[in-house]
Amino acid sequence: PLLSCTTIMGFGLWILLDNQSLIAVLQDSSMVLKVVSYILIGVGSFSMLLGFLGCLGAIYEIRCLLGLYFTCLLLILLAQVAAAILIYFQRDLLRKEANEIVSQVVVNYPGQNKTAEQAWDYLQRTMQCCGWNGRLDWDANHMISNSSLELYPCSCHNASLPPPNVADSGFCEASSNDWPIYETGCLENVGSWLFTNYGIILGICLGVAVIELLGMILSMGLCKSVHQEDYTKVPKY
């Protein structure tokens, strides 16, 4: 159970503190994602406390603590299942919100939102993509549309095309309207990455659920094995 608690809390901290991925772009503008990160951190911390109470109940054979541990683990597991179902059925809405957030970052780039813009540059470089749906997203950018020069985002630059060395962020100047960039949109590449790694993601989720189920089974077994509560077993400090 401690491993599952640490995983949940770690995932929440990753969402809150990450500044080099799509999560950073979204969480900087999405209050929902921030709330989710705080909920995950809270659930992870609360679960660790429950784990301590469960260990205390097992060591000193206190049935009420074992029962409390079982009940809270059950509620957490049900909440995780409910959240997974909600995300599945609201995936179109989430995709739309992500599209709107990224579109605003692209349109206003470079603006005051430094963290989101740096994360977006990092995503385009590492995922080898340009724009959310494609390079045409950048046509709406204020600097590109108002400039007399042929500008393109440096982080979109295709490393296999000249010039060999360009900046990691900001705008670069092209010799023509045929930009030397990656043509694939980041939505497609992110989707491909998720599809490639869905086994790992699913395995982690199932692993956490299995650990919680094992904790529930063990706590119930210990609770049944304790025939009579003896509150004198509670340690005195």
TrEMBL record:
Entries under PROSITE patterns matching the protein: TM4_1
Transmembrane parts of this sequence: 38-60, 66-89, 198-222
Predominant subcellular localization, coarse grouping: membrane
SUPFAM superfamilies: Tetraspanin (SSF48652)
Pfam family, one: Tetraspanin
Signal peptide (UniProt feature, chain positions): none
CDD domains per UniProt: CD37_CD82_like_LEL (cd03160)
Membrane-topology descriptor: Multi-pass membrane protein
Compartments in which it is found: Membrane
Domain of life of the organism encoding this protein: Eukaryota
One Gene Ontology term, aspect cellular component: plasma membrane
Keywords: Membrane, Transmembrane, Transmembrane helix
Family per similarity comment: Belongs to the tetraspanin (TM4SF) family.
The protein, known as: Tetraspanin
Organism classification: Eukaryota, Metazoa, Chordata, Craniata, Vertebrata
Gene behind the chain: LOC107687049
